[in-house]
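FAQ: What does the model actually see?

It sees only this:
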Amino acid sequence: MKCIAKTYHGLEQLLAEEIAELKGEKIKVRTGSVAFETDQEGLYRMNYNLRYAANILVPIASNKIQNLNQLFAFVIKIKWDQYMNVEKSYAVTTHVDSEIFPEANKVEGKVKDAIRDHFQKHYGSKPIDDNEYPDIRIDITIDREWLDISLDSSGMSLFRRGYRKTKSHAPLNEVLAAGLIALSGWDKKSTLIDPMCGSGTILAEAMMMMCNIPAGYCRMRFGFQDWYDFDKKLLKKVKEESNEKITDPTADIIGREIDPDEYDASRVNIQRIPMSAHIRLESKDFFKTKFRDENATYIFNPPFNKPNENQNIGAIYEKIGKHINRIKPSNDLWLFSSNLEANDDLGLTVKQSIDLVNVSIPCKFYNLTYHEEGES
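And it is asked to produce this:
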């Protein structure tokens, strides 16, 4: 079957390599997604294991359209009873990049009208429209004049790993956190430290990557489990084979957090994954850290404003930069941020800068070092 794995800009190549490792075929890298082919077992394996995918779509129909009436006429003719019935709830997600259809909500409404009318005509009743917890998720993508209709095999986005029960003030997306770890080049042998660990997402993702714990290990359900052809025994086989590859830790993972609420959130979240006892949490202030872990990789995401607080983010970044310049660490330092203007306040030397997008927000992932004397 043909599949499309959606991801975030900047992680496409990582995702393609991961799909290849899981024996996906005819892999094609696109902007924000990777197309590939697999069978039913492979679809289950991808959903259970992929770290860098947000959703995995299975296309069911496509066509050129010029207006909403053509959209309706095409959608209503699809044999929807192959995929759902009037007892199933459904949701429609739209992604529209077209001057012809400037309002995505009208596209969504027209698609829902067509699905409801299809079932009303053939069965005398309509399926339930449920945007929160639907049985079937339908993805509508329009690129200029081209319409693609897919079923979302993942259901809820794959960044919902299942281990995070307590959120911090600015939680980092799990898929993006895994991508940051991979892009940093961490070798899974030297120490990894998040000195502003918040709700512990980087810590959890690092442990899961190091020990080969499937990304979906803590997840309760996938969208394909509500499909007509769902094979319960096959999913069990996929999970058992994937879980057999889990290994013991090969490096130390350390999280540091001074905010007591964030520290508690991290503690609650990481204890839900295997090997969590090997993650060391420390209540430490970043600005009192001396970076004595010489061979460590530091990955951190400075906090955003907390609700109802008027923090000066630029001042926080300036303070971070001054601290690093003062102690001159020899560690590998990586900083992720969407505060692009505030990064100018760091006053550090940028060894590498990677452009990323967090949902729709442009971000940067910086490999930093202290500012050498004499540098301008």
